[in-house]
Amino acid sequence: MKTLIVDDEHLMLELLSHQLNTIGDFEITTSTRAQDAIRMVETGGIPVELILCDLQMPEMDGVEFIRHLLRVNYAGALILVSGEDARILQTAETVARASNLDVRGSLQKPVSISALSEVLLRDGKRSSVCAKGKARKIYSAEEVRSAIAEGELINHYQPKVELMTGAFSGVETLVRWDHPQDGLVFPDQFIGIAEEYGLIDSLTTAVVSSALRQLRQWMADGLTLHVAINVSMDNLTKLNFPELISNQALVANVPLSSIVLEVTESKLMKNPRAALDILARLRLRHVGLSIDDFGTGHSSLAQLRDIPFSELKVDRSFVHGARGDPMLSAITESSLKMAKQLKLQTVGEGVEDQDDWDFLVASGCDLAQGYFIAKPMAAEALSEWAVDWKSRT
Predict the structure, then answer these.
(1) What are the domain boundaries of the chain?
(2) Could you read off the pLDDT of 112-161 as tens digits, one per residue?
């Protein structure tokens, strides 16, 4: 792998070069000046597949270096190295990832060969200039309206399980558009259009109706589950929304207490007062309310103070990797502790591996959701998954 190491310390260049040569086959070029390194990448004189870059350099710091990598359309992998505080290093890594660079990870000095090996083995999120410029298909309001009317919206379901017992306790409903030509279209491509053009009420009605009919079928099959459904802030401005939920539950013959409505915190914070009437009335009917993506908005504590939530979901950005990250673990553990003191049920999102699972168990979280347990799936696949999950636990 053609590798460029950028560090103003000659000793560090020698150490990293030696470690890389010990690990595998690397064709290494070094530079003590970030400007020279950028010039190498920009001119293409040295084709570079991997860059190891120090953050603290005298003429151009690592964050500036990242900006210049974007300018010259660098498409290789990047590893950040620093002797600075771990939080500064993590912030720089976040900047690089947000810029859509292929960031393999970050390392604190002195760099150990085992830590370097682990980062090198990670799969990156590659992003060529072509990939970054690829536009998603834009759908018209009329196409979305037709999809709702023609019944092309379908629900997939992601299981939630109890962390202490592994018991299957519920699902989150995730709407998809089964497009006749384009296949499965994800909600980020049509929910915004539905909200903008006044279609969100009919879309939500279709999602709720389908989810509650499916819940009725699961109940007939002997499965006692809670069904969580995401709702839009636009839904929560309609005074008849509690009646809509009640009527749908009556038609499907399912208890209102089996329904959990998930409200995204970052959207709720924009106009919380408009929703208080509706949310309070939903709780009076024993419909569960979950604050979704907790920690990613700007007024989380105010939401918890003012709105009668029954559940708190810790966002995946804090859960995944928390076991090995002191900052993430502190944020997640404090969120869970606060939720417990408020007598809220807790859900950890984004559980990707055994470490995430073990961390949430040790932290006293109630429920887990994520790819380690199951990806979202069609309703008919859930029974087979449940049998497999039972054998795993």
Answers:
(1) 2-133, 141-392
(2) 988 899 888 876 543 333 333 334 688 999 999 999 999 999 999 999 99
| Fold that domain 2-133 belongs to in CATH | Rossmann fold (3.40.50)
Instruction: Report pLDDT digits (tens) over 27-46.
Output: 999 999 999 999 999 887 67
Q: Do the domains 2-133 and 141-392 sit in the same CATH topology, yes or no?
A: no
162: its two tokens:
């109890």
**Token pair for residue 227?**
């069904």
List beta partners, residue 356: none
- R_g (Cα) of the chain, nearest Å: 24
Whole-structure pTM value: 0.75
Q: Which residues contact 60 (CB under 8 A, 6 or more apart)?
A: 33, 34, 35, 38, 68
End-to-end CA distance of the chain: 41
Q: Which residues pair with 82 in a beta bridge?
A: 108
Query: Please, are residues 162 and 347 in contact by the beta-carbon 8 Å criterion?
Result: no
Question: Buried b / exposed e across 313-346, counting CB within 10 Å, b at 16+?
Answer: bbbbbbbbbbbebeebbebbbebbebbeeeebbb
So what CATH class is 141-392?
Answer: alpha beta
